[in-house]
Amino acid sequence: MHSQSRISRIDQGKKKIAFFAGLLMGALLVGVVPGASATVYHSQEEAFELAFGVGVPVTAEPVFLTDEQMAAVEREARVKLDSGLFTFYTAERDGKSLGFAAIESHTVRTQPESLLIVLSPGGEVVRVEVLAFHEPPEYQPAARWFEQMKGRSIEQLIPGNGIDAVSGATLSSVAALASVRKVKAIFRQAHPAGGE
Fold it and tell me: pTM (2 decimals)?
């Protein structure tokens, strides 16, 4: 009798665990877990359309940085590279370069953000778009803040050197500026004479 009541309690415990695990999974699938937020604004295909236009063929251009080039990028952009491998995306129309695009992902506070960074054929920033933002929306800088990055030098993309961090979204804005500096510095190493 004693062993039957013990088995009964174990079965009840398993049922409770299964019940709560089911509730948690259901909440995750429905998206009602407090603090869980994610917004994906554009797919990769849509990002390339933003960068180069609809129907323009896009080519991946892998970049393999040497140790010396990685050190130069880190020094110039004031960022730490995880790898010497990077990918630019290019497109042409009538034999003329439309520029270069990079999809750059980084962690803001604890969640990722992905940016589309578009450079002119000569390496100037022409557009920065948020593709995905997984932090709470109040930590995301407004689109007009990203507009300030157009045509800026790497030095001007350091917080306080021409573009200020956004109050209430400081970590997001600092991370975005670091990503744009990184892309520009890698472009310089991959295309020292410009990208044309």
Answer: 0.78
